[in-house]
């Protein structure tokens, strides 16, 4: 599994039935997230009780599905993240239980020389 730094993550605002597998989730990407499921981006789906997360992505040869179930506690509310795409660093923080604010992090700078 190779996920590059330019991959973005999109989280579904609506709760999803965690019995859905790859096909069921891939059919939800376009209507719920407005994205192409074959784009290579990560599509995050959260259960009603926020104890389970599934992440769907296309990796050039087929769909892959990542699943995590918390034994205690719940994932932070996806409400602020559902309003925009977010980075892999933000996704990792969210998966660790850190609330992500609606603010964007500092933008990267393309340096051409050192002064």
From TrEMBL:
It comes from the Bacteria. PANTHER family: BLR8292 PROTEIN (PTHR36455:SF1), PTHR36455. This is Transposase. Pfam families: TnpB_IS66. InterPro entries: Transposase_IS66_Orf2. It comes from Cupriavidus pinatubonensis.
């Amino acid at each position: 599994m190779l996920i590059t730094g330019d991959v973005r993550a999109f989280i579904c605002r609506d709760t999803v039935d965690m019995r859905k597998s790859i096909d069921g989730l891939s059919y939800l990407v376009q209507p719920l997230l407005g994205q192409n499921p074959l784009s290579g981006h990560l599509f995050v789906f959260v259960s009603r009780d926020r104890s389970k997360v599934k992440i769907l992505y296309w990796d050039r040869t087929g769909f892959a599905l990542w699943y995590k179930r918390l034994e205690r506690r719940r994932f932070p509310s996806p409400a602020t993240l559902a309003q925009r795409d977010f980075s892999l660093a933000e996704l990792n923080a969210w998966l660790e239980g850190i609330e992500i604010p609606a603010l964007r992090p500092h933008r990267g700078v393309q340096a051409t020389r050192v002064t």
